Amino acid sequence: MENFQIDDFIAGCLGGASSVIVGHPLDTVKARLQVGKGYGSTFNCILKIYKNESVSGFFKGMSFPLMSSSLYNSVVFGVFSNTQRLLSERCNRTTGVSPSFLDLTVASMLTGLISVGIGGPVDLVKIRLQMQTLPVISVANSISHKSPFLQSQCMYKGPIHCLSSVIRQDGFVGVYRGAGAMILRDVPGYFLYFIPYTYLCAWLTEDCHKEPSASNVWIAGGIAGAISWGTATPMDVVKSRLQADGVHCKKYNGVTDCILQSYHNEGIKVFFRGISVNALRGFPMSAAMFLTYELSLNAMRKTKVESDAR
């Protein structure tokens, strides 16, 4: 395995951190649209969050994914790049030659499968911190009223408290609630992430240049992110609902039950709720991620070459 490189893991770390900073505000909007009610359009949702929670409302639950995104995206980019290189090495392909479509497919789908191991708990904590300020029906305090009223409850003090509460309530398996939906989202999602990026980069790069320019990486990464997140929206809705389920009460018994209940109560359109914000946030998030990844990778390789030359 002489083609195995640690640089991809390090560059993925940095890329993940930049994508969280860029994309978290719209990620909060997406989560509220998919799980909450009464927000209407994307624009109305943004206005309501700002009005009720100010600017800080868009950054709820950000600390945990920011800290953990380095590990998560380190695994994503490290697994994808090294798997793709290992497959090329096994097939005795010349180094530097563009990877085959089959190599990219296997590497991207394997990445999606492995990423759930780390991404599941991260997403669950993020979703629950984002959603816990939603109003919930309080029955106990409405005895003297004609009907229950809505109030806001904060169950979690922070990401660590959220994680420990879930484990205490549901056991270790509880942190992987929604993992089935996440696999169905991420396996095809990473296929529609890395493959469009790879081919768009190659198409945008002129023959006289060996490496794609920063602008080409930005464009290719942004388009790949918009495609991937846009098409992943139906399963993303199911995943978000399963992970948010249990903050105040539980009503879903699994992926199939969530799909059937959601369809029965809200129709087919519910699975496309947040598709515009998903595609919209997918562009800057992925553009920032791929650009940071490529620039970091090039900087490390350049430093290594200069160090070897001394």
Automatic annotation (TrEMBL):
<comment type="similarity">
    <text>Belongs to the mitochondrial carrier (TC 2.A.29) family.</text>
</comment>
<protein>
    <recommendedName>
        <fullName>Solute carrier family 25 member 48</fullName>
    </recommendedName>
</protein>
<dbReference type="GO" id="GO:0005743">
    <property type="term" value="C:mitochondrial inner membrane"/>
</dbReference>
<dbReference type="InterPro" id="IPR050567">
    <property type="entry name" value="Mitochondrial_Carrier"/>
</dbReference>
<feature type="repeat" description="Solcar">
    <location>
        <begin position="212"/>
        <end position="299"/>
    </location>
</feature>
<dbReference type="InterPro" id="IPR002067">
    <property type="entry name" value="MCP"/>
</dbReference>
<keyword id="KW-0496">Mitochondrion</keyword>
<feature type="repeat" description="Solcar">
    <location>
        <begin position="99"/>
        <end position="203"/>
    </location>
</feature>
<keyword id="KW-0812">Transmembrane</keyword>
<dbReference type="Pfam" id="PF00153">
    <property type="entry name" value="Mito_carr"/>
</dbReference>
<keyword id="KW-0999">Mitochondrion inner membrane</keyword>
<keyword id="KW-0472">Membrane</keyword>
<keyword id="KW-0677">Repeat</keyword>
<keyword id="KW-1133">Transmembrane helix</keyword>
<feature type="repeat" description="Solcar">
    <location>
        <begin position="3"/>
        <end position="86"/>
    </location>
</feature>
<dbReference type="InterPro" id="IPR023395">
    <property type="entry name" value="MCP_dom_sf"/>
</dbReference>
<keyword id="KW-0813">Transport</keyword>
<dbReference type="GO" id="GO:0022857">
    <property type="term" value="F:transmembrane transporter activity"/>
</dbReference>
<dbReference type="InterPro" id="IPR018108">
    <property type="entry name" value="MCP_transmembrane"/>
</dbReference>
